[in-house]
Amino acid sequence: MNKVLLSLLVLIIPIKCFCTDVPVLYSPDKKVRVEISTSNNLSYSVFVDDKPVVLPSVIDLELSAGLKLSTGLKISSVKSHTVNTVITAAVPDKRKLIPDVYNELSITFKNKFGVIFRLYNDGFAYRISTQFKNDITVKNETAQFNFPQGSHAWTPIIHKRPGQDIYHTSFEELYPYKQLDSLTDTVYMYSPVLVELNGGIKAGVTESDLDDYPGMFLRGTGKSSLQATYAAYPLEERVEPGDFPQRVVSRRANYIAQTKGTRVFPWRALLISRVDKDLPGNDLVYKLAEPCKLKDASWIHPGKSTEEWIIDINLFNVPFKTGVNTATYKYYIDFAKRFGFDRIMMDAGWSDANDLFKISPNMNIDSIADYARSKGVKISMWTLAMTLDKQLDSALKQFNRWGADFIMTDFIDRDDQKTVNFYKRIAQACADAHIMIMFHGAYPPKGFNRTYPNNLTREGVLGSEYNAWSNKPTPGHNLTLPFTRMLAGPMDYEPGLLDNATHAQHTPIKGKVMSDGTRCQQLAMFVVYDSPLQMFSGNPSQGLLEPEFMQLLGSIPTTWDNTLILDAKVAGYIVTARKKGDDWFIAGMTGENAHDVNLRFDFLDDTNYDAVICKDGVNADRYAADYIITNQLITKNQQIPVHMAPGGGFMIRLKKKQPVN
Asked: How many helices (H) and strands (E) does the chain have?
């Protein structure tokens, strides 16, 4: 018999004990179910509230030896169990305590393949396993996501680079809204992709626990479905020249991975929501990831940093010539100290991109490091990924000597098996040296930040820098990110631009970079966007002219005890409340249209709170830098109307009012 009904008890039952036709796995609340079939091949279907969300979709793995998961699907054993526990996040980008409640079903087949199915109230995932004694070569993996007719999706469509294959990408695209069946098999996307079904149910398609294996891309099929595809293993590489050289694959193998014969493969995940506000707070990808591999993570200290590259170090009202030099970075250190930033970033230019020991002649790193120590501010360094790889051991020792406990590495732009292993090797080496790291030109974390919490955040997002040369980071794009890219983990958008423009006024200008959207939207991003290391990209010289605003921005934490999404609509608006200790930070953002919020505080306790409210000024629809800061007392029974201008936002800091003795 090749179909079974599977209970949710903790037991292993031989297949002969099952006598009904369709295996079914239910979520803990019984509102989501997965039906599994092994009749002709292995497939699954997902239902939410009895509505089909995923139609029968095939699961398969093919090895180069001709072995396939789908060949001879004879079940050897079935194990199912329920888990109800709590994960304590080493670096809590959403919340410190993460409930982990699910039902799981593991099927092993006599052909040494297996599949693990896991079902939560707000998501579904499966992963393939193998039990071969020797190493294996994986030719391909089949992962289908077949949706009902009429489904649409927000799709990060990859634009192919000249002279490179489609799998070379910085993972920095817009998310146009498309009907799924309009996407042909020539359209490639990276994950997450957010699918919208008729009736409003949404499903974020992505992966988690990516290790020693290529990342999952998705492509269209001309139907209402997505098909997984993977970069084949790189056999030969060439160095692409330029200011920031990188390795590019010039020849690939006819397989996607060579790996251990006994292992589990990455989770294929579906984040499920009935209402939009359930998406940005979903922890599924984090929960699926391998637990922290560091014996001690207590040395990891997230926080906020300055970032000078986007504004091209175009300072003013200073008595020195600005640029990549000692005086400029000491100025940044003073700014960081005054407004509560933990560190400064020394971006590209402090050294030769190809040699981390060839320091810019205008830089005295020892003097900068000593000055930073005297101010209680850390320094951080940008690196080119290819150079860091080549000089890793000696570079990390030098960073330690300078007291630089955070680095960025950039221009990777791949996620084939070899490159995925690069991330792991670099993160582990940095952890051994007690150095935190951020990857740029990188695929989204996909749970890696749980396994290696010293990887605080990643790029993999079309962020603030694009304002310097394009009109792409619109408010609509900014309001898409919490429901798409952010599903896969923290993202380094680099908010905080202090030059602000309306959509009609926005013009890309190098060195005088403006945001498309209001000042308060830039402020709100520090609360709305997940990132334990937030990079302030604004101009410090402008910030010094507005100390009240900068003090408020500088007071925002980057890790959180809890997160609540109070209201949201994909690409439309979002209101997020986050708690840190006794304090709350509430922020809202809106897309192209103005939006009014009637803000309730019923999530507070009975204590009074002192509120600092920063919101769009009355003229922000014409002068986007217009804002107003007010103070008042707040209780849980109050309601406050807040108007957000087009491309606007707001931020409220609530500090618990201490009783007078």
From this structure: 11, 41
**Global pTM?**
0.95
Examine residue 659 and say whether the peptide bond preceding it is cis (omega within 30 degrees of 0). Answer: no
Alpha-carbon span 176 to 224, nearest angstrom: 16
Does residue 116 sit within a domain?
Answer: yes
What is the Cα–Cα distance from 538 to 531, expressed in whole angstroms?
17
**In the numeric block, which tokens belong to residue 277?**
């506000």
In this structure, which amino acid lies at residue 288?
L
Sequence-distant (6+) residues with CB within 8 A of 658 are none
Q: Which pair of structure tokens corresponds to residue 616? A: 């769009």
The answer to whether residue 103 is domain-embedded is: yes
For residue 504, what are the contacts with CB-CB under 8 A and spacing of at least 6? none
pLDDT number for residue 590: 98
Contact 246, 385 (CB under 8 A): yes
pLDDT tens-digit series, residues 125-183: 999 999 999 999 999 999 999 999 999 999 999 999 999 999 999 999 999 999 999 99
* DSSP 8-state secondary structure symbol assigned to residue 470: -
Residue 173 a catalytic site member: no
One of 60, 104, 173, 410 is an active-site residue; which one? 410
The reply to whether 236 falls in a domain is: yes
Which stretches does DSSP call E strand in 191-277? 193-196, 202-208, 217-220, 225-229, 234-240, 246-252, 257-259, 262-264, 267-273
Say how far apart CA 103 and CA 7 lie, in whole Å: 10
| Separation of alpha carbons 194 and 175, rounded Å | 9
Mean pLDDT of 437-444: 98
367 CB neighbour count, 10 Å cutoff: 12
- Confidence band, pLDDT 50/70/90 cuts, at residue 21: very low
Q: Which helix (H) or strand (E) holds 544?
A: helix 540-544
Q: Are 531 and 491 in contact (CB under 8 A)?
A: yes
Evaluate whether residue 158 is within a structural domain.
Answer: yes
494 catalytic, yes or no?
A: no
CATH of residue 176's domain is 2.70.98.10
Which among 104, 465, 499, 626 is annotated as catalytic?
Answer: 465
Tokens of residue 659, six digits:
């009783």
Residue 79: count other Cβ atoms within 10 Å of its Cβ. 17
How many domains is the chain partitioned into structurally? 1
Q: What secondary structure, in 3-state letters, does 265-316 show?
A: CCEEEEEEECCHHHCCCCCHHHHHCCCCCCCCCCCCCCEEEECCCCCCCCCC
Q: What one-character DSSP code corresponds to residue 467?
A: G
Residues found in the chain: 661
Helix (H) or strand (E) holding 32, with range, is: strand 32-37
498-to-132, 545, 602 alpha-carbon distances in Å:
57, 11, 33
Report pLDDT digits (tens) over 199-254. Answer: 899 999 999 999 999 999 999 999 999 999 999 999 999 999 999 999 999 999 99
- Residue 104 belongs to what domain range? 11-288
Contact 201, 48 (CB under 8 A): yes
Write 195-198 long-range contacts (CB < 8 A, 24+).
Answer: 195/145, 195/147, 195/151, 195/152, 195/153, 195/226, 196/151, 196/152, 196/153, 196/154, 196/570, 197/51, 197/53, 197/147, 197/148, 197/150, 197/151, 198/148, 198/150, 198/151
Which H or E element spans position 56?
Answer: strand 51-63
Cβ-contact 571, 279 below 8 angstroms: no
Nearest CA among 253, 180, 196, 190 for reference residue 460: 190
